[in-house]
Amino acid sequence: MSGDLSQVPIIAVKLFAIMDPFSVIPYILGIFTSYQESTQQNVSWSYLVNKISMVIVVILLIFAVLGRLILDFLGLSPASLEIGGGIILVYLGIDTMGGFGQLRFLSRSIEEAIVTPIATPLIVGPGTLTALVTLSVNYSILVLIAGSLIAALLTYISLMSAPLLVKVLGRTGTIAAGRFTAVIIAAFGVQLILGGLTLLNIIH
Predict the structure, then answer these.
(1) Which of 43, 167, 162, 12 minimizes the C-alpha distance to 113?
(2) What distances in angstroms separate CA 190 from CA 51, 85, 142, 185, one per listed residue?
(3) Across the chain, where does the E strand assignment appear?
(4) How many CB atoms within 10 Å of residue 62?
(5) Which of 66, 75, 85 is nearest to 196 (CA)?
(6) Among 16, 27, 28, 26, CA closest to 185
């Protein structure tokens, strides 16, 4: 298991690309706007983002620390996990291209939506958790924690600047940025599949 801290930025970028906050920014803004219009309670955008970010950090750290233990407990081989995780990420990348139009905010309280569906599964979903468990095969807990915290920070910055981002790029431009990161998700999935096949000596 590698403890090379030089891999931290690479892991952070991979996790950030999989979490893909750009894709959900229009959806979260829609939730925020609808809630502000339907209630007299004053909730600021920074309050909402801070709460979402706290939940994201907790979920990422749990899987960064316990990822390897989960793998060992279930008795899964690194090759099978890489292939299975890769397939999930490829599917997630393709699904992300379709957007999140099918999701609706059904809760009366925006606080209830912070954990589900915003923090998880919209941002930290199965793809992110699969990636963390898979990365735990080759990297130390310290490296994964550092990469997770940087990815969470990048997500926080993206969400905090969302109103300005949408104002500059427009809703269409913001969605387009999210679609681009979907390609990165799918590419990471393909890389995992190829890595698993290499471990099984199917390809070289």
Answers:
(1) 43
(2) 33, 10, 26, 9
(3) none
(4) 13
(5) 85
(6) 16
What is the 3 state secondary structure string of 53-78?
Answer: HHHHHHHHHHHHHHHHHHHHHHCCCH
State the pLDDT at residue 148.
Answer: 97
Q: What are residue 139's phi and psi, to 5 degrees?
A: -125, 150
On average, the pLDDT of the chain sits at: 81
Distances (CA, A) of 64 to 13, 44, 53, 69: 15, 31, 16, 10
What does the DSSP assignment read for 84-128?
A: HHHHHHHHHHHHHTT-STT-----SSHHHHIIIIIIIIIIS-HHH
Per-residue pLDDT reduced to its tens digit, 13-24: 999 998 988 877
Whether 101 has a pLDDT exceeding 50, the answer reads no
Question: Which residues have C-beta within 8 Å of that of residue 168, sequence separation ≥ 6?
Answer: none
Q: Domain ranges for the chain, please list them.
A: 5-198
d(CA 6, CA 10): 8
Alpha carbon 97 to its chain centroid, in Å, reads: 15
Other CB atoms within 10 Å distance of the CB of residue 57: 19
Q: What is the pLDDT of residue 102?
A: 39
The pair phi, psi for residue 88, each rounded to 5°, is: -65, -45
Helix (H/G/I), strand (E/B), else coil: 139: strand
Q: Within 10 Å of residue 176's Cβ, how many Cβ atoms?
A: 12
User: What letter would DSSP give residue 109?
Assistant: S
Q: Is the separation of the CB atoms in 57 and 149 below 8 Å?
A: yes
